Amino acid sequence: MSLPVVAIVGRPNVGKSTLFNRIVGRREAIVHDQPGVTRDRKYGLADWSGRTFTVVDTGGYLPDSIDKIDQAVLQQIKEAILESDLVVFLVDAKTGLTEFDKELAVLLKKTGRPVLLAVNKVDTETKELHSAEFYALGFGDPITIAAVSGRNTGDFLDKVIASLPPGNHRMLEVDESVISLAIVGRPNVGKSSVVNALLGVDKLIVTDIPGTTRDAIDTKIKYYGQEFLLIDTAGLRKKSRITDAIEFYSTLRSLQSIQRCDVAVVIIDATLGVETQDLKIIAEAIRLNKGVVLTINKWDLIEKDADTARQYEQEIRETLRGNDFLPTVFISALTKQRVYKILELAKSVQAERRKTIRTAELNEFLAAVTRRYAPPSMDQKEVKIKYCTQVKSNPPVIAFFTNAPDSIKANYRAYLEKQFRERFGFFGVPVTLVFRKK
Predict the structure, then answer these.
(1) Torsion of CA 113, 21, 148, 31, to 10 degrees
(2) pTM exceeds 0.70, yes or no
């Protein structure tokens, strides 16, 4: 049985994201005193009194705006309401009742969804009277809360779960068979478009304005029996271009998305090629030992012949230098050309991350490569690698036991890794080689 969905709606700056964070128990959504920070729907799991439900944060309700993003946000709010089992209509005690509140109340009544009216920013008992004017919205007794301090949020959550339909009362267990993919890249390379192409629905706001996606958005998809968790992230910019606090926290969320994924799908703009910031994103994913799939988007905009893709891929490998083990796929999110190849490659890469090589095979390999090229001697001392074994998978770690670990220099490590990959594969996967004293 699917979990019930609770959507938080309201005009800008009433504290929706603060309440969302309070409910899910961590700073999941970006909170800022600038209106309009939340744009896409933001999903999180919540548990209260043994009852698990999905909570959805939405953007601020601005029905009359002609701004392109505001109009897209409005559509997202409407979709969030329609997919919800309960709507939390959040208003602001400090500002009082506004025309936008009244308009949103009319919209909610038309949908027929059950509504719980919550008056935020009621920090003390003396401010309780400020909620009286909200009776005019027609949703019965308002619940007064202070999302920042947590005042009355326990009573509020009691009413939330009492208003939900019967459902799952157990916390969800983490399913390790699900492969989590972080969709990352520079701003405006088409990350949200890629996710939408995979989903077949416009679940995320897609515009041609860089930086539209600010929070990371998690969405599940099943492809030929394999479940994937897609994490759409804010575009990663150079630090010098992060000019305000909102973009700083968005970048932080993107890096956190890489940290919690299995495979990073790095989106690159085919019309621009691999740029310095792309290399930094790839390097960060490799540093965190994540699988990587290079996805060249907007391939439909490239004039090409039968050899174009091969030449383009060769140029990428030369640019990547030591990280030339990453698989590449050429796609068009617009036409959906080869977009599902991303999932096929990601599944293969995750299988490589989980792969384990038998110790006997590893030592046969070690004997062969050291005969071909022995470790250089240091200070007239012969360096010998006696033994190796895989000590970890997902991600893979190979331990080499030697009489002089500090004498194994970078060029010999690179030689071992190259030979290792030629023998055992591990394409798309960073492999950690550690050297220990025998």
Answers:
(1) -100
(2) no
